[in-house]
Write a structure and sequence with these properties.
It is globular, with a radius of gyration of 25 Å. A 6-stranded antiparallel sheet has the order 17-18-21-20-19-22, with helices on both faces. α5 runs antiparallel to α6. A hairpin with a 5-residue loop joins β20 and β21. The two termini are 38 Å apart. With 526 residues, the chain is α/β, with parallel strands linked by helices. The protein folds into 4 domains: 41 residues, no CATH class; 234 residues, 3-Layer(bba) Sandwich (FAD/NAD(P)-binding domain); 123 residues, FAD/NAD(P)-binding domain (3-Layer(bba) Sandwich), CATH 3.50.50.60; 109 residues, FAD/NAD-linked reductase, C-terminal dimerisation domain (Enolase-like, domain 1, 2-Layer Sandwich). Bound molecules: flavin-adenine dinucleotide. Flavin-adenine dinucleotide binds next to β2, α4, α5, β3 and α10. Its cofactor is FAD. One of its GO terms (molecular function) is flavin adenine dinucleotide binding. This is FAD/NAD(P)-binding domain-containing protein.
């Protein structure tokens, strides 16, 4: 076991028995003076455990720590349950469901179904209301669970003042400040949309400049939405708003969708589907400049240089900035605690999710790496299980982020979904030989029956071991199909087991009988 983990565990155990005053810890003179100043001027509370941010790991962790008998405080600056519930997975997938209904309603005649005069009308306010209702209900559930567990929740912004102490500024508008200290601190403060530096961006009407959060609050469908960035958040919104009735143009810096490691065959397949749905995609875009115009409906002129079409002027009603996310560490005062960050501002984490400061852990998106709810939740499980392991002194393996690394799945919730598990093609070890099998969605009986054949499946096999290295599905229910293959990978099964299994007919998974009869290639990654 790593020494620092043992130390942390000892700290947690010993402190839960004997609570110490908040000023017990003076790492240096500056900190000592700061502590003395705040001690006499501000209300101060000490806890065994302090969780910063109520993301997908912080929220369950706070309840768990309380259940271990530790006095636990959670500080949240915006709303309980973090990005996933409030502005990420939950609201977007709720809206994507509305988009899919609009898509199917337009295609209803193809299935022999006719209603009214066949026109599809989108009530954006109802789409938004449905989204808000589901978010409120999910958030309410998290709030109740924290309350039920007896966690002390403080709504405010936290900033470190020393290694084990934070200043919390209330977010209720009264500017009230208090000091909270703890023996163990768990940072789960997440990320936020980045704002690119684009010439003219500040000159256009700011209500028309959207990010992944504000776009969900639109009460009307935009006339022409220009999505800056062809990453997966931009694509989900791009297809969604096209389906809701907007003209949509995606401008992307790279030569194809996604990042450099993506398999060109897969992302080109996805791009074709989006184009078929009416989303315009421009690649190799550079020199993007914005200008305000007097056009009432399309008041943003976006000048771009494109790889294939040369210089273009696009006239937009709204733009969506989808150029990535930045960690919420810039206002966290990490320097006061001596917590190390990467050049991008992410907090450096050990495989057991400890920072360089003993007793201070980091969980979720803010540590960098794959930014998904399931990863953040698994961070909670790693910390939880290691704490239990240490305090119960039972034999057992320490859980680490390295153990799960080969098996982190992702799903882009376009329709069809783009699901993937295993290393991306460009991340495979160079020089090693692999076998790939791929087949089009039009080979899947279920797809033909439901008239949903767009997409493809692709698998990469290690030719030395016959084990599955990665699997991708661009398919309706691609995420569920991927999960079947994920099980085989987690269990270390050879690909022949999938080929020979008896899958129910006609399920999407039945395609795993046929994939191996598809196109076979031997590849070596260069
Ligand atoms: C549009 C969109 C769609 C997404 N879709 C998916 C999806 O389909 N599937 C998926 O797996 N992931 C998706 N994600 C990513 C997912 O939402 C995150 O990976 C997930 O929420 C994990 O976040 P977290 O636990 O790191 O923290 P977060 O959920 O980001 O929570 C961090 C919390 O900390 C609070 N905070 C920040 N700074 C402070 C401070 N100084 N003091 C106090 N509190 C603070 C924030 O207010 C926030 O509530 C999506 C993200 C976006 C933006």
């Amino acid at each position: 076991m790593r020494p620092s983990l043992v130390l942390t565990s000892k700290l947690v155990n010993c402190v839960s028995k004997a609570r110490r005053p908040h000023y017990h810890y003076f790492p240096n003179l500056h900190s000592a003076l700061s502590n003395l100043r705040t001690l006499f001027t501000m209300p101060t509370q000490h806890f065994d455990a302090l969780v910063l941010g109520s993301g997908q790991s912080g929220t369950p962790l706070a309840s768990h720590l309380k259940s271990l008998g530790q006095s636990t405080c959670l500080v949240e600056r915006a709303h309980i349950a973090g990005c996933c519930v409030n502005e990420g997975c939950t609201p977007t997938k709720t809206m994507v469901a509305s988009g899919r209904v609009a898509y199917l309603a337009r295609r209803a005649g193809e299935y022999g179904i006719h209603s009214g005069n066949g026109e599809v009308r989108v009530d954006m306010k109802r789409v938004r209301e449905r989204k808000r209702d589901i978010v409120t209900s999910f958030r309410g559930g998290s709030e109740k669970r924290l309350e039920g567990a007896g966690v002390r929740v403080i709504m405010g912004e936290a900033r470190f003042t020393s290694e084990k102490e934070v200043l919390v500024t209330s977010n209720s508008g009264d500017g009230k400040e208090q000091i909270v200290s703890a023996d163990s601190i768990y940072i789960n403060v997440g990320c936020r949309p980045s704002r690119p530096q684009l010439p003219g961006l500040e000159d256009v009407e700011q209500e028309r400049v959207l990010d992944s959060t504000s776009i969900q609050e639109l009460g009307d469908v935009p006339e022409h939405l220009v999505v800056i960035g062809g990453g997966f958040i931009g694509l989900e919104f791009g297809q969604l708003f096209r389906r809701l009735g907007a003209k949509v143009t995606v401008v992307h810096r790279g030569p194809r969708l996604g990042g450099r490691e993506e398999d060109p065959e897969l992302v080109d397949c996805l791009a074709d589907i989006l184009r078929e749905d009416g989303v315009e995609i421009l690649f190799n875009v550079s020199g993007t400049k914005l200008e305000k115009t007097s056009d009432e409906k399309l008041p943003i002129r976006i000048a771009v240089e494109t790889g294939t079409k040369g210089a273009l002027d696009i006239h937009a009603s709204h733009i969506l900035l989808a150029t990535g996310r930045v960690p919420n560490t810039d206002t966290l005062g990490l320097d006061k605690a001596g917590i190390k960050t990467t050049p991008s501002g992410h907090i450096v984490a050990s495989p057991t999710l400890e920072t360089n400061v003993p007793g201070v852990f980091v969980l979720g998106d803010v540590k960098g790496g794959p930014a998904f709810t399931h990863v953040s939740y698994d961070d909670f499980r790693i910390v939880r299980d290691n704490l239990t392991l240490n305090s119960s002194k039972t034999e057992g393996a320490v859980k680490t982020t390295e153990q799960r690394a080969p098996f982190i799945p992702s799903v882009v919730y376009t329709d069809p979904q783009f699901a993937h598990i295993g290393p991306k093609l460009g991340a495979l070890p160079k020089g090693k030989k692999y076998i790939t099998y791929s087949m089009p969605g039009s080979w899947i009986a279920r797809g033909l029956e439901t008239d949903e054949t767009r997409g493809m499946l692709k698998v990469v096999i290690d030719s030395d071991t016959d084990k599955i290295v990665s699997f991708s599905a661009i398919s309706v229910e691609g995420g569920e199909l991927m999960a079947v293959v994920q099980m085989a990978m987690v269990g270390g099964l050879k690909w022949q087991v999938l080929r020979d299994a008896v899958w129910a007919h006609p399920s999407w998974s039945e395609s795993l009988n046929n994939l191996w009869g598809g196109e076979r290639k031997e590849i070596t990654v260069s």
